[in-house]
Design brief:
Distance between the termini: 29 Å
Structural class: mainly alpha
Order of helices and strands: HHHHEHEHHHHHEHEH
Number of helices: 12
Largest sheet: 2 strands, antiparallel
Number of strands: 4
Helix content: over 70%
Shape: globular
Strand order of the largest sheet: 1-4
Strand content: under 5%
């Protein structure tokens, strides 16, 4: 029964991703907003809803391992698996604004997480974790970032779809976005619940479940929406979705979770946090390999191999 529910959840995720992508692209066309900005904001936050639900509920329940492990694992999964798979399907070009602004912001967010969670190393406390003040600072930074992003989009306003087809009705686009998000969230929760039951039956520890199955399950909306966007020729939206989700995971979701209830690292190690930083660093370096500003197929293979090695180390 759990396997059947797993497949149903996956179907809802894929269908929801398709509706969300089409509706968001139509919204971008209607308001002449660059598709990357739509991916960085609406799509990124929407597809991060499963992480938000899991981490916030875990924080309320006092399950710090799950709350932090979900975010750490999701960010690692987003870069190494999602971008790895996307690059195999089609090399992903990187624009100047992505290289100069968005990827560095993602890297800074990763370094901030490492810094704030290293209380013992910095002699700021006896237990590593994300405290309430850390969470508040993250939330303030995220709000400031969104204000900056929206204003920057206003200064560089441009048509996101130059095709001759008429713009979709705004209400229909809104319904598609809401329906797509509903499918993503409900499908993600169904998939996650089924996968967790299967993993628990196999005797896998809670911290490993959080970083792997929970993180992978909550990242399925990002995977589905990024692949659908890429296949539809909207690489900007796919890339913006991943980068925006990673930033939202740390600053918004972990910030909110830490503000609700201070989180201790528990079974999450410094190596796990360093993997988050490594993923952001490699994404930045990918923009300068062979003087080609794109994530190539061989880099996609490298990303997937790194993730496989990390899983081998984690489970072994």
């Amino acid at each position: 029964m759990d396997i059947l529910l797993l497949l149903i959840g996956l179907g809802l995720i894929l269908g929801g991703a398709n509706f969300l992508t089409d509706g968001s692209a139509a919204l971008a066309q209607r308001f002449r907003v660059p598709e990357f900005i739509i991916g960085l904001t609406i799509v990124a936050i929407g597809t991060s809803s499963p992480e938000l639900v899991v981490s916030v509920l875990s924080a309320i329940a006092g399950k710090s391992d799950v709350a932090i492990g979900n975010i750490v694992g999701s960010n690692i999964f987003n870069v190494f698996v999602i971008l790895g798979i996307c690059a195999l399907v089609r090399p992903m070009p990187l624009t100047t604004s992505v290289i100069r602004r968005d990827i560095p912001i993602g890297m800074l967010a990763s370094l901030l997480l490492l810094l704030m969670a290293s209380d013992r190393m910095l002699h700021l406390g006896e237990v590593d974790g994300v405290g309430r003040m850390d969470g508040i600072i993250m939330l303030i930074l995220y709000i400031a970032l969104m204000i900056f992003t929206i204003r920057a989009a206003g200064r560089t306003k441009q048509t996101s779809d130059s095709s001759d087809k008429p713009a979709m009705n705004i209400w229909l686009a809104t319904i598609m976005i809401i329906g797509g998000l509903a499918g993503l969230i409900f499908g993600g929760e169904l998939f996650l619940d089924s996968a967790t039951k299967i993993a628990t039956a196999l005797g896998i520890s809670e911290s490993v479940i959080a970083i792997t199955l929970v993180a992978g399950g909550t990242s399925l909306p990002e995977l589905a929406s990024s692949l659908v966007s890429l296949v539809k020729g909207k690489a900007d939206m796919a890339l913006g979705n991943v980068i925006g989700s990673n930033i939202a995971n740390i600053l918004l979701i972990l910030g909110l979770s830490g503000t609700i209830n201070p989180l201790s690292m528990g079974g999450i190690t410094t190596i796990d946090l360093l993997m988050v930083v490594l993923s952001a660093l490699l994404l930045f370096l990918a923009a300068f390999t062979f003087k080609r500003r794109e994530i190539d197929r061989w880099e996609g293979v490298l990303f997937l191999l790194i993730y496989a090695g990390y899983l081998w180390w984690l489970i072994g």
